[in-house]
Design a protein that fits this description.
5 helices; 2 strands; 5% strand; mainly alpha
């Protein structure tokens, strides 16, 4: 049997099994199941695309922008990654809500890091978020 046919058959068996296990009001078609699976695993795919680009040197020469709170550099483009993903604020319905949640995350990070502050060198202390 052709190895590609085996892959297709195994994949289809997986889809049918998952559809049978998760049949609900929200999953009425195979398309719903595939869409849900794609959404569940989008972060894994994007992380892999970014990691592969970084390891393959494809981010060298890219434009970067400094994150306003955490101060790390964020690439402005990456092959295989939709541009909106690199700007998380753009994916929220409300930029104000995003900013509020982002600042809350930074505040929690700062508060939690206080537990370890006495064990860190000064350069690590300076690398944290700024509010």
């Amino acid at each position: 049997m052709d190895k590609y046919l085996v892959v297709v058959l195994v994949t289809w068996a997986y889809v049918e099994r998952r559809y049978a296990l998760e049949r609900s009001a929200q999953l009425q078609t195979y398309g719903d199941l595939i869409r849900r699976h794609r959404e569940e695993h989008a972060v894994d795919w994007l992380t892999g695309a970014l990691l592969n680009a970084a390891l393959g040197g494809r981010l060298q020469g890219s434009e970067y922008a400094a994150d306003p709170v955490f101060e790390f550099e964020v690439p402005q483009s990456c092959d295989g990654v939709p541009p909106g993903v690199l700007n998380p604020a753009g994916s929220w319905p409300s930029p104000e809500t995003y900013t509020q949640k982002y600042r809350q995350l930074a505040a929690r990070f700062i508060e939690n890091f206080k537990k370890f502050a006495d064990q860190c060198p000064p350069e690590v202390m300076k690398a944290g978020p700024r509010l």
